[in-house]
Amino acid sequence: MNLTLNQADILRLAAHVEAAQLGAHAIPKLTDEFPAMTIGDGYAVQSELRRRWVARGERIVGWKAGLTSKAKMLQMGVSVPSIGFLASDMARPENSVIRTDDLVHPRVECEIAFVTSEALRGPGCDRDQVLAATDYVLPAIEIIDSRFSGFKFDLPSVIADNGSSARFVGGGRPRRVTDIDLRTLGAVLEKNGEMVTMGASAAVLGHPADAVAMLVNILAELDEELPAGSFVMSGGITEAIPVKAGDCVIARFQELGSVSIRFS
Ligand code: 0L1
Ligand code: MG
After folding, report:
1. 77 CA to middle of ligand 1, Å?
2. In ligand 1, which atom is closest to the CA atom of 142?
3. Which residues of 60-73 are buried (b: 16+ CB within 10 A; e: fewer)?
4. Mean pLDDT of the chain
5. What are phi and psi of 202, to 5 degrees?
6. What does the pLDDT read at residue 22?
7. How far is the CA of 143 from the centre of ligand 1 (A)?
8. Maximal C-alpha separation, the chain
9. Which residues have CB under 8 Å from 79's CB, separation 6+?
10. Which CATH architecture best describes the domain 7-263?
């Protein structure tokens, strides 16, 4: 990938983003200081952020595909999806209470998560390879939290911020991919007992396994593979809904059951 940042700037930006994530404070988008920043620069900062996460003793448990629906790409003014890593300290149990005082401006999305039983490596990874390497899928809620002030960001900045990753919750009813039609699954998101948004799994690049293949192919550009046993969030089926302390959220999925969480 094309880089314009030098190593010192990559290290400094990763420390800057990490401080915003851990301290839950908003920062200006990184391209304000580095207008020529590229997607490759964004991934270089994200890789350094991942190295820092591991150095703090956390495990990388999987990856997420972001900005995978046409609607979301249009909304954010970007034309390609992104990926980010998922670490052990971001996982929360189903039905748990998630604090909001250590988040900047959390939003929730309904997603289909894949758990892999074999490693996947691009380039050229496709839907069939993803489905063959999938142990099971399950419904999930992603809690995204862009650290950029006023949600003003661009693709290089959001990639450096690890695709706004913050928390994730898997649950419901795990299913084999051969037992369901992953393309046509509907999902409804309820907040405080009211339906706030709904969508169908085809919103995710036409098929959620295509989003996982896209993720594997981006990993290949970073000279990495998706290890067996990874937890992979395939991207928001619904738009992201803002949440605050006191909110109860339930994501109901066709065929896959539901996932609920509460915010304090
Ligand atoms: O999961 C995602 O689609 C990442 C979205 C990044 C932009 C945002 O924070 O809304
Ligand atoms: Mg997401």
Report:
1. 12
2. 1
3. ebbbbbbbbbeebb
4. 95
5. -65, -15
6. 96
7. 9
8. 50
9. 73
10. Alpha-Beta Complex (3.90)
